[in-house]
Design goal:
The chain is of the alpha/beta class. 30% of the residues lie in helices and 24% in strands. The protein has two domains: 161 residues, Lyase, Ornithine Decarboxylase, Chain A, domain 1; 245 residues, Alpha-Beta Barrel (TIM Barrel). Helix 2 runs parallel beside helix 3. The structure holds ligand LLP. The site of ligand LLP has 22 residues, from helix 10 and helix 11.
């Protein structure tokens, strides 16, 4: 539980909004976010880095709702994006292209051109091929592209293999030698301008040590390049700061920030960070209602609680074996039996589960909250089983706003056709 989430008179309340009020108004499943939490985390990181020039570029992929982006733009954040779609979202939310960094291994020609026309801050290049494509596009459009290079420092972030990105066996980044060649190429091309080197070694990293080690590698390369007379304006350490889902030790922000400030103090370099999860993860929850209870029919059987959210709404448990706390919105009656429940959804797969073996006192119709679902929750949802994607709600003090209405089946079908020919359709 975070300071923004509390039981008030037996009802789970986010900031000053009881969650049942949101369920009544918007139905379930619904993602609910706390603006106070997002602001608090942003300020904590910002203050911790006060000793050096820095820019926090919120990683849009973690939660790309335009109300969330608008909130971060208002706090002065820049943005880290990985697609043209994310850039469009930032611009619609009032973010400035100049404060955006474009990351990702597979930027298309159209995306590069869109970003150049919009006046993007810089590209984080992940291959020599990509650098040459950006060079050609910048020439064609008569623009100068600012170039960062993403180095793969070969550091084990000690996180889930699907979200570990800083090892040589991962598809991300280039070797320090390639990075040096790329920056030197950018320095002599008249359509490119070298800006800095960076890395992103993975996500949900709970120990700052590998992140601090990554900074060392980046600084070694920066020093070499500067010694060769290449002007650089920044270093980029990516995101990856972990949060507490269950019993992980709290990420030591002070230790992390102290190491960064110490290493960069007195250098004419701006520090870029690209945190996503750290800013929004613990600030969101998924509200769901119990549809049916299927208590075990035999002694060794399992108890299934079928809820109205499913793997299409929150895929993290299925995909990464992730653990999200499940809590009752209303404190249960003393008579309700507590059992170890499997919390499952309506999707037709045994892989459709949200939580295993949770000791809860449940009745059909109960409201539940899956906590720490503010990052990589809604953004990874899908229409699997033709389920409408959930609504999203942003809470501020005692008020809440629907920032994405629940999808309807008409929304889902709007892009499809039966393939009937014009003749068939007029018959
Ligand atoms: N920068 C780059 C280049 C990234 O690839 C990522 C995340 C970030 C920043 C932000 O990382 P964060 O601060 O949020 O750790 N879907 C997975 C997480 C995938 C992370 C992908 N890259 C999950 O649900 O755990």
């Amino acid at each position: 539980m975070t300071p923004e989430l509390n039981y008030v008179d037996g009802t789970l309340t986010l900031e000053a909004v009881p969650l049942n009020a949101i369920a009544d108004a918007c139905g379930t499943p619904t993602y609910v976010y706390s603006s106070a939490h997002f602001e608090r985390r942003y300020h904590a990181l910002d203050h911790a880095l006060a000793g050096i020039r820095h820019r926090i570029c919120y990683a849009v992929k973690a939660n790309s709702n335009i109300a969330v982006l608008k909130l971060f733009a208002g706090l002065g954040a820049g943005f880290d994006i990985v697609s043209g779609g994310e850039l469009e979202r930032v611009l619609r939310a009032g973010g400035e292209a100049e404060r955006v960094v474009f990351s990702g291994v597979g930027k298309s020609t159209d995306e590069i051109a869109f970003a150049l026309r919009a006046g993007i801050g810089f590209f984080n290049c992940e291959s020599e091929d990509e650098l040459h494509r950006i060079d050609r596009q910048a020439r064609r459009l008569g623009r100068t592209a600012r170039i960062g290079v993403r180095v793969n420092p070969n550091i084990d972030a000690k996180t889930h293999p699907y979200i570990s990105t800083g090892l040589r066996t991962n598809k991300f980044g280039v070797t320090p030698e390639q990075a040096q060649r790329m920056i030197e190429y950018a320095a002599v091309s008249d359509a490119l301008e070298p800006a800095g080197v960076g890395c992103h070694i993975g996500s949900q990293i709970t120990d700052p040590a590998p992140l601090i080690e990554a900074l060392e590698r980046i600084m070694e390369l920066t020093d070499t390049l500067q010694a060769h007379g290449v002007p650089l304006s920044h270093v980029d350490l990516g995101g990856g700061l972990g949060i507490t889902y269950r019993d992980e030790t709290e990420f030591d922000l002070d230790r992390y920030a102290r190491a960064l400030v110490q290493r960069l103090a007195g250098r004419d370099l701006e520090l870029m960070l690209e945190p996503g999860r750290y800013l929004v993860g613990n600030g969101g929850l998924l509200l769901t209602r119990v549809e049916y209870l299927k208590p075990a029919a035999e002694p060794m059987g399992r108890n299934f609680a079928v809820v109205d959210a499913a793997m299409n709404d929150l895929i993290r448990p299925t995909l990464y074996d992730a653990w999200h706390a499940v809590v009752n919105v209303h404190t249960p009656d003393a008579q309700t039996t507590t059992r170890a429940w499997q919390i499952v959804g309506p999707v037709c797969e045994s892989g459709d589960f949200l939580a295993h073996d949770r000791d809860l006192a449940l009745e059909p119709g109960d409201l539940l909250a899956l906590l720490s679902a503010g990052a990589y929750g809604f953004v990874q949802s899908s229409n699997y089983n033709s389920r409408d994607r959930a609504a999203e709600v942003l809470v501020k003090d005692d008020a809440f706003t629907v920032v994405r209405r629940r999808e309807t089946v008409s929304d889902q079908l709007a892009l499809e056709s039966t393939g009937a020919t014009a003749n068939e359709m007029t018959d």
